Amino acid sequence: TDTLIGMLGGIYDEIVNLSSQENADKALRNSGYSCGKAFAQRLNSQWDLSSNGASLYEEKLRKWCQFDSDVGWGKFDIDVSVNEDTGEFSGVLTINECFIVDFKNKRHVCSFVQGYCAGVIETLLGIEVTLSCRVCPLKNRFKTACVFDILIKEE
User: Fold this and answer.
1) Going by DSSP bridges, is the β-strand pair 129-135/88-96 parallel, antiparallel, or unpaired?
2) Which among 20, 29, 130, 154 counts the fewest CB atoms within 10 Å?
3) How many CA atoms lie within 13 A of 119 on its CB side?
4) Which residues contact 132 (CB under 8 A, 6 or more apart)?
5) At a CB cut-off of 8 Å and minimum separation 6, what does 17 contact?
6) How far does CA 134 lie from the centroid of its chain?
7) Which stretches of the chain are DSSP H helices?
8) What gap in Å lies between CA 39 and CA 56, rounded to an integer?
9) How far apart are CA 36 and CA 14, in angstroms?
10) At what angle do helices 2-18 and 21-46 cross, to 10 degrees?
11) What pLDDT was estimated at residue 155?
């Protein structure tokens, strides 16, 4: 993980030097988003799921969280509520011990994970979402989890 954090951190620093921190965050988030969409497309084509409706979405998200937890990206947990009648959606994604937090240099390389998760969730659910960071270990050293509110993008 140190190698990946170092690589993304080097790219992040270079973008900051050429442009701004905001553009560095955006570049890593966009890169993660593309990776997440591609990964979720593969998951969608490989999974044999038994659910339908709202429970299908919840099953997909649970399976994805279990997969990424098992491969060591952190301990993923997701809590979503889908109301098929009203079209309302709410959710929270928690990643305990996320593998890509740059504690040493405090660079926002975790923007990659934020984009990755948004890409996965959008592709699995078929709706556009935004992940809003609620809790960040870089901002509070006593926290070990990244917590994101999952919001549907307004048209």
Assistant:
1) unpaired
2) 154
3) 22
4) 148, 149, 151
5) none
6) 13
7) 2-18, 21-46, 54-70, 111-125
8) 18
9) 23
10) 130
11) 64
Segments of the chain with pLDDT less than 70: 49-51, 53-54, 155
Residues sharing a CB contact under 8 Å with residue 3, sequence separation 6 or more, in sequence order: none
How far is 90 from 59, CA to CA, in rounded Å?
Answer: 15
pTM: 0.91
Question: What pLDDT is attached to residue 72?
Answer: 92
DSSP state of 153: P
3-state SS, residue 128: coil
Burial environment of residue 129 by CB neighbours within 10 A (0 to 12, 13 to 18, 19 or more): buried
Q: What's the CA gap between 116 and 121, in Å, rounded? A: 9
149 closest CA partner among 103, 97, 89, 96:
89
Q: What sign does the CA torsion over 18, 118, 65, 150 have?
A: positive
Distance between CA 66 and CA 60 in Å, rounded?
10
Q: What is the pLDDT of residues 37-60, one digit of tens each?
A: 999 999 988 887 666 766 788 888
Compute the distance between CA of residue 100 and CA of residue 29 in angstroms, rounded to an integer.
13
